[in-house]
Specification:
Blueprint: H1 5-39, H2 54-78, H3 81-107, H4 112-126, H5 133-146, H6 198-240
Helix pairs in contact: 1-2, 1-6, 2-3, 2-6, 3-6, 4-6
Family: Belongs to the tetraspanin (TM4SF) family.
InterPro entries: Tetraspanin/Peripherin, Tetraspanin_animals, Tetraspanin_CS, Tetraspanin_EC2_sf
Disulfide bonds: 148-184
Length: 245
């Protein structure tokens, strides 16, 4: 066992830290599941970049944090050098991956709009087709909530496979005051449709999600540094005192 007040203090700090770390993982996982349930349909609009969405990242991060926190708690309680070293290595790897992911997201942030634009254009060709009910629902929900129409504007919907010879748009493109009209998207009156394209709304959501993830990542990164320091301190104290689990 770790002897001395300083050693016990480090052990208790290590356990408390990892308990809070594990609880934080539960919270992140819960938020990710909630976001997945409430916003999951939107991910079908941009299949090329599914992991840019906050729900998926929160779920993945929550599970990883819970596993790492559990290992750290066991290592602190059992004073097991192997678990402590595993905990340190896992935290270090995750920390390096976070830095790499953050750098890549910053470098390629301007390319996200083009990826989204290409996916949205392809998705419009599948709108209303057999077997594409999820994508169709996602388009209607996104246009309704974000008050947008098409990729760049409403004309993007003209002569799509669902209505190959018509200059129509989905009814979800109609402004709220015109939506009660039956088949309002077939009126041909562009003033009744939302003026903004959906790619700008999607880009805004992406930037918000990336900013949110970045802020959470910085906070978790600082906590991870503390965790690595505690793990090393406890590991070396156990080794120096000749304690083996």
């Amino acid at each position: 066992m770790v002897e001395g007040g300083c050693g016990k203090c480090i052990q208790y700090l290590m356990f408390t830290f990892n308990l809070l770390f594990w609880l934080a993982g539960c919270g992140i996982l819960g938020v990710g599941i909630w976001l997945r349930v409430t916003q999951g349909d939107f991910a079908t609009l941009v299949p090329s970049i599914p992991f840019v969405t906050a729900p998926n990242l929160c779920i993945i991060a929550g599970v990883i944090v819970m596993v790492v926190g559990f290992i750290g708690c066991c290592g602190a309680l059992k004073e097991n050098k192997c678990l402590l070293l595993t905990f340190f290595v896992m935290l270090f790897i995750i920390f390096c991956l976070e830095i790499t992911a953050g750098a890549l997201a910053y470098v390629y942030r301007d390319h996200l709009e083009q990826f989204a634009r290409d996916d949205l254009m392809r998705g419009m060709d599948q709108y209303g087709m057999a077997g594409q009910s999820g994508l169709t629902r996602a388009w209607d929900l996104f246009q309704t909530e974000k008050h947008c129409c098409g990729v760049n504007n409403s004309t993007d919907w003209f002569k799509r496979p669902v209505w190959p010879n018509q200059s129509w748009v989905p009814d979800s493109c109609c402004k709220p005051e015109f939506r009660p009209n039956e088949n309002c998207g077939q009126s041909g009156i562009t003033l009744q449709f939302f003026e903004d394209g959906c790619v700008s709304a999607l880009k805004t959501d992406f930037m918000f999600n990336l900013g949110l993830i970045g802020a959470v990542g910085i906070g978790i990164g600082l906590i991870q540094i503390l965790g690595m320091v505690f793990a090393l301190c406890l590991f070396y104290r156990i080794r120096n005192e000749g304690t083996y689990a």
